[in-house]
Write a structure and sequence with these properties.
By secondary structure, the chain is an alpha+beta fold. It has a single domain, classed as minor pseudopilin epsh fold, CATH 3.55.40.10. The chain contains one helix and nine strands; from the N terminus they run αβββββββββ. The strands form two sheets. Strands 5-4-7-8-9 form a five-stranded antiparallel β-sheet, covered by helices on one side. β7 and β8 form a beta hairpin. The radius of gyration is 28 Å and the shape is elongated.
Length: 182
């Protein structure tokens, strides 16, 4: 005798629960990797934008024939390139800005060869292609990268802390004069 049964083509509740559980575990394993990739991409984009900001700042100061000032707005976490002004409140609208990613922290600000606070930090770029010089360190995901603009308004970036530049400055009158041969 043959029994008549229904041929079901769907999942039972238990089978469906197992599939959902496996997919959830798989998603939870992959999600941190995706977030790490996004953070890494944001960090690389930020460092690339810093490089572009420094190069464009020097070029714009020379092309415009005016002094431009690179400042850091701690409240908005933005680096800004601004036209001249006598105080932070009098600066015009930014010419360029670079917004920091959430994971990055700027530290150890240097103005010229002296340490500075983030609120007072600025680097002036002059129309003759020179600058006050200065820099800072970017701490992002336990990796430190330094950003330094020298007296010729040229950028140097590298991993690690800001280099010691106190010995790079030559004071006027300390150069030896050449002796003329008799």
């Amino acid at each position: 005798m043959q029994t008549q049964g229904r041929n079901r083509g769907g999942f039972t509740l238990i089978e469906l629960s197992v599939v959902i559980t496996i997919l959830s575990l798989l998603f939870m394993a992959v999600l941190p990797s995706i977030r790490a990739q996004q953070d890494s991409r944001a960090s690389v984009t930020f460092l690339s934008s810093l490089r572009r900001l420094a190069l464009d700042a020097r070029t714009r100061a020379i092309d415009r024939g005016e002094t431009l000032t690179l400042t850091y707005n701690d409240g908005d976490r933005v680096l800004e390139l601004r036209p001249p002004g006598e105080s932070n409140e009098e600066f015009g609208d930014p010419v360029m800005t670079v917004r920091m990613p959430g994971s990055a922290v700027l530290q150890n600000f240097q103005q010229g060869t002296n340490l500075s606070s983030s609120a007072d930090w600025q680097i002036r770029l002059f129309p003759d292609g020179t600058s006050d010089g200065g820099g800072f360190e970017v701490l992002d995901s336990d990796k430190t990268t330094y950003f330094r603009i020298d007296a010729n308004a040229l950028l140097s970036m590298g991993s690690g802390n800001l280099p010691d530049v106190t010995n790079e400055r030559w004071e006027a009158g300390t150069l030896e004069q050449r002796l003329s041969s008799p």
